[in-house]
Amino acid sequence: MHAYSDLHRMRCVAVAVSETPPPPRNGLPETVAAWAAVAAVACVPFALGGGPGWGWGTAAGVLGGALVAEGAVALLAPRPSAGRVTSVQVACAVALAVVVLTLLQAVPGLPGAHPVWTDLGDALGRTPPGTWSMTPGAALSNAVLVAAAAASLWLGSRARGTVREQGPVLIAAAAALAALYGLLVLRAGSEQVLWLAKPAYRDVATGPFISRNAFAAFLGVGLMALAAAVWPACRRGGAPGWWAAAIGLTILAGLGASASRGGIAATVLALTVVAAHWAWHDGRPRVRLATGASLLGLVLAGAAVLAPRLAAVPEALERRAAIHRMALEAVGQRPWLGHGAGASEAVFRQLRPDDLAFVVTRAHSVCLDAALAWGVPAAVALLVAGAALAVTCARAGRGGDPAGVAGLGCCVLLGAHGLIDSAPLVPGVALPALWLIGAGAAPQPPR
To answer: For site-directed labelling of 311, which of 57, 254, 302, 405 has its Cα 20 to 30 A away?
Structure first.
């Protein structure tokens, strides 16, 4: 009787599997476009962190071409739809709305123009047609940058097969290469970033970035990508290969050499969330014990690296608080339409008190930067979209999806670091992180 029941159950499973449609396979054009997108987001950190226009602009061009190719393939061979709106679609819609808002901020003659144009008219004796933005000339470049971020998120969510599985490996390898370069430059005593002299942070590693905080954030993203790469082997009870250990140790060494308080703390927090997620849903006691011991060692190592700089934390927090007060004052002046994308330096130049001993160009908070540029409603919409992506990635990770684990870690990393710094807005950090988040938040076909 039991043998008959088992045979009947096996036949039912076989029928169900045979009726389940196979996951769609990528064609050659779509595969090439997908790999080009991954390569672009992995390489943009080496263009001075993607800060210069030629750096992030090149990546944006590649992402745009990959998006066109992916769209053309989708029109010729449409995939079955999930039948519901996903968090990736919502986030991309919000980003496109921000792109439209950025372009509208540069249109002259609209009601609600920035007061700076009235002041300029008083000085000139005639009132020019004003815009919502203080710096309308920066609108186009910032709109393209936001569109590139949305494209990276979308292309990450559309990646399938080998691209989705090996893309995190490429990003982790890029982070290890950046860390190795930073360590070698620091060891050699050089005070250059690529071919340029360092404007600051001469005694720490910054890799190909200008800022050590952005460098540390990118290395944290690389560790999240590495977690996705080694997750399948660990779930099968095996151990990661030697290459994973080499990449991980190199990234950790570069992260420690950056001496970035915010970057190291945010990375440790993200790794804690990922490891806790991992151990909780794995259930094996030895996995939980090994995870706890690794986290304890990582926290102790991070505390030892930051010990010389912990005494300066109160002073740093006081400086951040002064910057945040100025940013809140600026947001209060134009809470609905903002001062314009790219106008933060001009805004702080006006609001900076005479007794402030340092120059301010950013709000050092992702939320305040967004509210200052586009207004409070747009900043809230972006924050809600990011939270929805984090929840979706957490659900995917709970189901055993390694990309979901990496996406969740990136959401925690960018959110935590973005509370006290603008490093997550650097293209070399944002583009690879958004690709990983998109891959983790994408609904996957049945296997």
So the answer is: 254
